[in-house]
Amino acid sequence: MKYVRKLTPVHSYDIPGLESWLEEQAAKGLYLKQYGAQICTFTRDTPHTVRYRLDYCNTDRDPDPVPGLLTLYREMSWDYVCRSGPLFLFCTRDPYAPEPHTDPQTHAQLLKQLESQIKRGCSFLAWMLVLFLFFFLLGILNYGSPLVALAQGTLANIGLFLGLIQLIKMIPALLDWRRVHRMITHLEAGIPLTPIPSASRCRRAVNGLALVATPLILCALLAYWLLPHPQIRWSLGTEGRPGDFEPVLLTQWEGESYHPDLLESDGVTIFNSCQWDMTLLCPTRWEIQQWGSIGPETVRLELYWYRPLFPALDRPLARDLMNYLTTHEENTRRVDEASLGPWTVTEHPVEGTDYLATAYNPNTVYQYAVAAGNGRTVSLSYRGPQDLEDHLPEIAAMLS
């Protein structure tokens, strides 16, 4: 038997619209074999006038009410076709077959059970959305700023990403709730449901896009799971890495007395390395680690380079990073240690930057610098004998 498949141009819970569309297809000789939210399968035969009706049945009840429902429709000369979620689809070619629902009030009470089921689904999605937003807010509290949390933190990015997915899932669920509620309102007003044309090209296009996108996404996830991941971490000095800018190097700052720590793991000098990463806020982020020593003294430079998704966020991100760096240094001190006291934050007007500032505190061994410009942001945490204010042009050059 030859089958014809068509993209579904109506919503699953648009009962009058779906009934009308199926009756139009029957008039063209296409009879529904299997319903799908994105695509429907039809068989081709001689065109006839056919009535279609959707009915709700609560399958969670005990004993199973489905056999009784099918028997009732069969006694009224209606044939079972297939299911559409919690809705059962019936059809008849008998023009004298009675309508399954003759009392709008009774029909409304039945659809209220369907509305309750949809509301429970919406409530679950809403609670999941609240949970993921809680994770997002918790991530912000850890960093003190939404921008820094999304640029550096894992928890905030996961919470926001999963929250957006839940929000995307909630929108069609709420629209389904709205459609069913409108039908109930009409029925309670004494207006019976009758097939009404509502097929939409837009809905057909959306279903077509979903039909194509779903297997592509699944294939991408499968490839990510099965195939080896591309390298994202390299030894500092590897040709072409990092590929977006030229980082400042301690070997140039400190001179011949500086000895980098060249301990290797999996072929990478872990304490002198560059690593590519991405977050929701920054599709490109580089982390540069440089550790070494001058005699018995440890020298360290930790550098982060960001390219925000929206270039206008480069300066706000830099300011928030400076606040985070100075606050984080205070918060990581032990309880019995004295407070660091105020930081001296100095802004420097350097060509090629929209913002460049350094932070110094005589009670700590660390100095900080942040810079922003050209849609890029860079932050440095330095421990060593140099003064970051002597290297401002080199810091600014990383933004070009």
For this entry, give a set of tags.
three-stranded antiparallel sheet, Protein Transport Mog1p, Chain A, 40% helix, 400 residues, single chain, nine-stranded antiparallel sheet, elongated, alpha+beta, 24% strand
Explain the overall architecture.
The protein has 400 residues and is of the alpha+beta class. The protein folds into 3 domains: 3-92, no CATH class; 104-198; 233-333 and 341-397, Protein Transport Mog1p, Chain A, CATH 3.40.1000. Helices cover 40% and strands 24% of the residues. The protein contains 9 helices and 17 strands. The protein has helices at 15-27, 66-75, 104-143, 146-152, 154-188, 201-226, 250-254, 314-331, 392-397, and strands at 3-7, 30-34, 39-44, 51-56, 79-84, 87-92, 233-235, 259-260, 264-265, 268-269, 272-277, 284-294, 297-307, 344-347, 355-360, 366-373, 376-383. Strands 7, 8, 11, 12, 13, 14, 15, 16 and 17 form a 9-stranded antiparallel β-sheet that branches. α3 packs across α4 (146-152), α3 runs antiparallel to α5 (154-188) and α4 (146-152) packs across α5. The model has no long low-confidence stretch (mean pLDDT 92).
